[in-house]
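Data availability (excerpt). The following record was deposited with the supplementary files.
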Amino acid sequence: MQSIEEIRKVCQEPVIAENGWYIRNFVRRVSIYFTMFFLCTPVSANRITLLAIFMGIIAGGFLSIGGYANGLIGVLFLQLFLIFDCADGEIARYKNQGSLRGKYLDLIANDIVLVAIFLGLSIRMLNSNYRVPITFLSHNNVIFVFGLSAIVSHLLYKLSVYYAQEISGKSVVLTDLFLTGKKNMPLKSFLQALPHLVSIINITTIGAIFNLLPYVLIGYGIILPLWWIVSTILRLYLSKEIIDD
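Predicted structure:
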């Protein structure tokens, strides 16, 4: 078996520059040890992806139960999802197992886990005695709307990006069109990361630690639909420029 640094060079170096700060500096440092273990087994990269999805579903289950300890267990499984989500690609690169099936599993894994998170948080808040200070926001119907809006708006956003790519033949990041120059880099990075699953998982983790999970649901129940609406309007406004660029 090769050394950990040799495995890291093969499995991580081709993609490390594309990863965000948290994945690059924390998750990848842990995932390589899981990768090293799985390389000693006949388990394929796609099975690791399925295992990652299973971790995300378990996380949603614990988040839905209620109670401080269950919230911590739930976010622990979310962090394990991130580790396994990195490990599957590392194994695929090492064993040269890249495939369309693997790419498909990777794409749907994020959506499944996002649904599990917000569905779990919605059930948690509906069945819990925990209430936010604003009584209106603790009403069952309002909680349902927040959870549903977070899930549906995320999926609609993914569809709008897909349709725009189908029309133009390329992927366009809207923040690249508006935020240029070094001064805007922090804001640009923040906006790009905010609706990303890694950020959602980490914010959920912080919310579990400080017992603020209802606010995570409320926050993303507002942020994600606004993100979809604004990005859709911008894509419609810039459709000619995006297509002709």
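Summary of structural features: The chain has a mean pLDDT of 84.
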